[in-house]
Amino acid sequence: MTEAIQVLDHGFVRLVESKGSDLEIVRAARVSYDAEWRAGEDDGGDAKLIRYLRKNHHTSPFEHVVFTFEVKAPIFVFRQWHRHRTWSYSEMSGRYAPIKDDVFIPKVGTIGNQAKDNKQMRDVSEDTYKQWADEYRDQNIQSAMADSMEKSFDTYRELLAEGVPRELARIVLPLSTYSHMFATVDLHNLFAFITLRDHDHAQPEIRVYAQAMKKLIQPIVPVAVDAFNNWG
Ligand SMILES: Cc1cc2nc3c(=O)[nH]c(=O)nc-3n(C[C@H](O)[C@H](O)[C@H](O)COP(=O)(O)OP(=O)(O)OC[C@H]3O[C@@H](n4cnc5c(N)ncnc54)[C@H](O)[C@@H]3O)c2cc1C
Fold first, then answer.
1. Nearest alpha carbon to residue 141 among 101, 102, 173, 107
2. Which atom in ligand 1 lies closest to the alpha carbon of residue 86?
3. What tens digit of pLDDT does each residue of 59-90 get?
């Protein structure tokens, strides 16, 4: 198991285990032409083949490498993540155990305003910040968010104390509440995830998880990651 990379204010992503490496990719690819997966020591042919595969969208060999991650992230990040159907997920359940009051609060300087030229994004440019009293404005937003979340958790605890079932008491909790999961994916679908979620149009709070996972797999599949960086 690798060290966890800390993400956001209370989140992390950790590589729990993996199957395969760059070698697994070339071994799978060479089956196509019924060749020995490698006749002897690698003379640079493995890297050349992996680059060729990525450049030409020959994706199936990348599916033979598999990763399991442990992730702690806010529920609104999981909601986007779980749209990726090619992963396998096991998530903590608020029906089994009380939910901890661990919440995400955006940092000062990362809040910005609703973007005018893109309906789903935010504008955190310096120009935006000049219009506001910068830190002071963001600190007020942080306090308003924290107050609201605290009230929700107070209500949650009161409901539990009154004997309300955990599965119903939890519905008062905010989307910022952290959750915890194990998630397994093959390299082809992980690259697809990183393409979509480490992108300008993706929400910054999921981008940082995509970036962290790329860092975690880099030592295991360095040639494939390099080819992905160059050709997607
Ligand atoms: C910036 C951004 C904004 C988004 N905004 C919204 C939004 O406003 N509302 C919303 O609902 N979603 C939104 N999404 C989610 C998006 O529509 C996809 O559901 C999500 O990105 C998962 O992508 P995927 O289907 O390619 O991934 P996966 O589910 O992992 O699938 C990978 C690939 O497998 C194939 N596949 C998997 N399942 C099927 C299937 N049942 N039928 C056919 N092919 C399949 C497809 O080729 C697919 O590309 C957004 C995503 C991004 C990145």
1. 107
2. 30
3. 999 999 999 999 999 999 999 999 999 999 99
